[in-house]
Amino acid sequence: MQVGIERCSVVVPTVGRPSLDVLLDALAAAPGPRPAELVLVDDRPTGAPLQPDRPGLPPVRVVRTGGGGPARARNLGWRTARTEWIAFLDDDVVPDPDWYQRLAEDLAALPADVAGSQGRVRVPLPEGRRPTDWERGTAGLATSSWITADLAYRRAALATVGGFDERFPRAFREDSDLALRVMDTGARLTRGTRWITHPVRPVDRWVSLRVQAGNADDVLMRRLHGADWRERADAPLGRRPQHLAVTAAGVAALGLAAARRPRAAAVAALAWAAGTAEFAWARIAPGPRDRAEVTTMLATSTAIPPLATWHFVRGIVRHRRVRPWRGLPDLVLFDRDGTLVRDYPYNGDPALVTPVPGAREAVDALRARGVRVGVVSNQSGVARGLITRAQVDACMARLEELLGPFDTIQVCPHGPDDGCACRKPAPGMVKAACAELDVAPARCVVIGDIAADVDAAAAAGASSIMVPTPVTRKSEVAAAPRRAATLTDAVGAVLAGEW
Description:
Protein name: D,D-heptose 1,7-bisphosphate phosphatase
Number of domains: 3
Shape: globular
Main location: cytoplasm
Subcellular location: Cytoplasm
Strand content: 5-15%
CATH class of the largest domain: Alpha Beta
Family: Belongs to the GmhB family.
Number of strands: 13
CATH topology of the largest domain: Spore Coat Polysaccharide Biosynthesis Protein SpsA, Chain A
Structural class: alpha/beta
Number of helices: 18
Mean pLDDT: 96
Pfam family, one: Hydrolase_6
């Protein structure tokens, strides 16, 4: 089946760098059909709203994370999009003029087992002189695999694996981790024909020290994907073994000196100095060798080995035990009476719809992270003749006035003896909500106050969290697989990935 570009959303996480304007200008000027929308994810903790409006852009939507890092920003972007494909671009790249056309061609008629298509990257280096150490490092993006500077994924593939692992706090390894998890499902990733230019971003002279924090992320990659993760992700080892050896020599020299063993200390110090000098020359030799570059390389080459080792050890300690990333659910369904609002039996009066403490904040917290929300409610009062369906609908409308709009509302008007497939603990309403929103039940959580809510979730293949009330039977509470004291706690557990 052909995939038109109108079935694709473009997601750009940004921290408001000036390069964003260059990217937006390129997207506005490019010819050809536009994607369904451009989602700008503002990852700044604070700041004035972005002003992306300019003629020629696709429909633009701006969402904010409040500051959470690139993985969380990309997750919010794709979760709020509703198209079949999600194309990620970094905010410091410049797409070629034919990028829209090439993207459409890259995605057209891809077989179902292809979950992603990577664009091609060029990194312009200065003419007339050798590149600096930072420029050479950036140039490595041109040959890197599965980087989200330009990578389009099927939305369904992202949902299946829970998106980007937000335990990767930097723009480093989070894209490789995602690619490996997607390929672990049996899907394939391909390379397309579209191109972007990735300019070398201006940095200060100490940037090479800050990037050493990525050594901790490499530990997480090994914990998650095994010892062969580098081969699978096409990620070279680099100089970590040498950094460990140089650091060990330096520590040994200090220890031996403190132990008053001067000859052994001198040998260790000589090994440290030789290793440090070799590292510095390896960085200086291919570069411009001007005074600024040489002094920077000498200073940072002394600090990098122990700093890299420190972050590596920090990663070992921090990531002693890790679980596979599950991410956030795609949908959270709430029981109404006793869970979202106080339970007035067979209520048909909108004036009595009273949210429980923290209900609005809890539901809004899910919306803010791109998780869709819905209601699944038994209303047997209709079958019993105690209330009308119009009264039920009026109460639901009042609920949305108080708590904001829900993506789906499912109501069962039948009685306990009607034998319907929708009344909880039957799974009908949960399945119907998932089908309406094209969500796999395994990516859905049901939050309710009684066993019927928990059992409906289990029967549908969804997860559940029980929030008991004083009238919930103790046997039901004991049998629930997951429990929370309050609605706020239940939603907090969902947002923490504990579902």
